[in-house]
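Re: that backbone. Tokens:
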């Protein structure tokens, strides 16, 4: 049996964790959640104990609060929620994940996580701050990278439209499109301040505030020659507008549909699906975990763009595990610029 290695102090015996206690109807409310003290399990053979420094709150988590079949199981009531997190190994029974190392794992929404070492991926703080491995160098960044380059087959000279472009995925997608030679990159966002960020910092050619009018009209004005590739984080009226603006043989990558996640009734589908037939369009759904094989290439290329300054990113950080649910609700409201994270202290 392996020897338990620790930081020198005794491992904690309890820690706080967020539980889902009621299934939301429509928009989640604080009373649907409870922050509880729970025992920290003793380590078994091949396991590690991680003190989380950041955990991620993401749109897909809203779907897991419903008791419906999906690509991930729903959160269980009265049990800790999970999700992406990064932290420091503070105790280990596996030599491949030594004490003091930093790892990415899926045991978020809590202060301490116990897991099999094989389920924790080492991260390199010398490439970027560890929080970046939940955003620009994490699943959200990989969603943008794989969605544009592998699913959407971005070509040099394509005109690209990204919805939700100031969010964690959209902001990376638009910048990758620019770096890879798109002829025009257009984004939508929910405030004039975010629109300025897209153009002045991220290098979008044009952007619009979708609250300022009909999305179809705003998109036509921003991309008068049409678009070749649409990266969808929103759905609804944005998808309908994109179908109108897509050129012949255009593609739409369906990465997220945040406009529908709190709906209590099925939303209407796009009213212009005939555009798919007339223009020979392709709608391409994606799940990021289908593209895990791209991760080494993705990390190498995107970290290089970060070092060169070709790609930049923003994080919105809420401090304290006790504010985890408020961070999640704020993300659903669009309060964040870039990735929304909860910091538990370095």
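Recovered sequence:
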């Amino acid at each position: 049996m392996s020897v338990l290695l620790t930081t020198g102090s005794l491992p904690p015996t309890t820690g706080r964790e967020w539980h889902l206690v009621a299934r939301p109807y429509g928009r989640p409310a604080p009373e649907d959640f409870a922050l509880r003290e729970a025992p920290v399990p003793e380590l078994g053979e091949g396991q590690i104990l991680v003190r989380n420094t950041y955990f991620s709150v993401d749109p897909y988590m809203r779907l897991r609060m419903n008791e419906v079949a999906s690509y991930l199981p729903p959160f269980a009531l009265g049990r800790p929620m999970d999700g992406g997190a990064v932290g420091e190994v503070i105790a280990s029974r596996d030599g491949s994940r030594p004490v003091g190392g930093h790892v990415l794992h899926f045991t978020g929404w809590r202060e301490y996580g116990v897991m099999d070492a094989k389920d924790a991926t080492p991260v390199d703080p010398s490439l970027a701050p560890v929080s970046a491995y939940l955003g620009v160098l994490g699943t959200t960044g990989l969603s943008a990278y794989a969605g544009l380059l592998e699913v959407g087959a971005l070509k040099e000279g394509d005109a690209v439209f990204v919805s939700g472009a100031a969010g964690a995925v959209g902001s990376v997608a638009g910048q990758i499109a620019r770096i890879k030679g798109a002829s025009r990159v257009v984004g939508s966002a929910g405030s004039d301040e975010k629109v300025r960020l897209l153009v002045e910092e991220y290098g979008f050619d044009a952007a619009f505030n979708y609250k300022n009018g009909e999305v179809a009209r705003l998109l036509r004005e921003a991309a008068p020659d049409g678009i070749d590739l649409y990266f969808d984080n929103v759905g609804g009226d944005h998808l309908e507008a994109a179908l109108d603006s897509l050129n012949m043989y255009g593609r739409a990558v369906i990465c997220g549909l945040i406009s529908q996640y709190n709906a209590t009734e099925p939303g209407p589908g796009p009213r212009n699906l005939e555009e798919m037939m007339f223009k020979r369009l392709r709608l391409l759904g994606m799940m990021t975990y289908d593209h895990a094989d791209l991760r080494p290439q993705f990390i190498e290329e995107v970290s290089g763009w970060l070092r060169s300054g070709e790609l930049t990113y923003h994080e919105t950080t809420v401090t304290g595990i006790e504010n985890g649910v408020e961070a999640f609700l704020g993300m659903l409201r669009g309060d964040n610029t870039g990735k929304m994270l909860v910091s538990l202290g370095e």
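The chain has two domains: 5-135+314-343, 139-289. The radius of gyration is 21 Å.
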